Amino acid sequence: MFYYILALFVLGLDQVTKWMIVKNMHFGESITVIENVFYITSHRNRGAAFGILQNQMWFFIIITIAVIFAVIYYMQKHAKHQPLLRLALGLVLGGATGNFLDRIIRKEVVDFLDVKIGSYNYPIFNVADSALVIGVILIFIQTLMESKSKKENMNGAHRS
């Protein structure tokens, strides 16, 4: 149940922040939070991460539906006794659903978190994107931990 509550929290935070941007900022408008590092910039994306596959809305809708069903299935079948995996899948579910709603309702994804590091300007993103990235990183960590545990168990079994 925890991962569904987390997914709803991420979805709510994502949609509220996007609504605030749409209602209070003009497209392209930017607010400095930390000079030369972090800005709130009203931006729209009709593609995927880094703006790839622009205007491929049906592709993203189909893929996202598949991802949402796969995450829910995996949560029910495999994540019940794995807290890190539950956390990761909750983040992925909330993030995927947040951007999915944008694509369905707005026909584009609202982005606004704008990070600049030196001369590099990272692609503008949103709360859903952040949750997706963190969730995928946690899934990767969980996979590494499981792999290490299996190796240790196999080595221990060979020594007996």
TrEMBL record:
Catalytic activity: Release of signal peptides from bacterial membrane prolipoproteins. Hydrolyzes -Xaa-Yaa-Zaa-|-(S,diacylglyceryl)Cys-, in which Xaa is hydrophobic (preferably Leu), and Yaa (Ala or Ser) and Zaa (Gly or Ala) have small, neutral side chains
Subcellular location: Cell membrane
GO molecular function: aspartic-type endopeptidase activity
Major location category of this protein: membrane
UniProt record, GO biological process: proteolysis
Keywords: Aspartyl protease, Cell membrane, Hydrolase, Membrane, Protease, Transmembrane, Transmembrane helix
GO cellular component, one term: plasma membrane
Active site positions: D111, D129
Its membrane topology: Multi-pass membrane protein
NCBIfam families reported in the protein's UniProt record: lspA
Functional note: This protein specifically catalyzes the removal of signal peptides from prolipoproteins.
Similarity field: Belongs to the peptidase A8 family.
Protein name, entry field: Lipoprotein signal peptidase
